[in-house]
């Protein structure tokens, strides 16, 4: 049920009761039934969130973003304005005679996950079935067609790894195996083609 202190702008259409405390939904957003949203989220105006979406707590979804069925967004994620998620790699109109049977079951649907703390820049497009790792940072306008490693910074079309970001958002520079964030002093170590924080929080 909709929890205490939830704000839903009167011009929005919200058909779910699963909204956690202190979450805010701004003007002209549409949130369908069977959407789960945690506490302390901010859903910007003109967002569309389809049935079957789960959003954790403390997420920020900026204006005009489309989140389709099959997408899971974990705690603390930032989704910039005008981001488009997708869920079908070979879409056809279900009303097209030749393709109708494709949509008899949900086998076409590819789930997408955005892990905790990750950020997605304005206007990015997220391909169906990808996993964006925790604290990863997707650049504005990027087209993400493959999984993104935790803490990775990916840019462009197709999105490619261009470096690493700290939990706090600062770019990390590695001259050796271990580096320290110049902003928050968290420390990270490289492990093959991945990195991880030395003190887990
Ligand atoms: Zn930092």
**Strand residue percentage:** 25-35%
| Backbone shape | globular
Secondary-structure element order, as H and E? EEEEEEEEEEEEEEEEEEEEEEEEE
List the bound ligands.
zinc ion
Runs in which pLDDT lies below 50 for 5 or more consecutive residues are: none
Which structural class fits the helix and strand makeup?
Answer: mainly beta
Mean pLDDT: 96
Largest sheet: 10 strands, mixed
Q: What Rg is obtained from the alpha carbons, in whole angstroms? A: 18 Å
> Could you tell me how far the N terminus lies from the C terminus, measured between alpha carbons in angstroms?
31 Å
**How many strands?**
25
Q: Identify the strand order in the major beta sheet.
A: 1-3-6-9-12-15-18-20-21-22
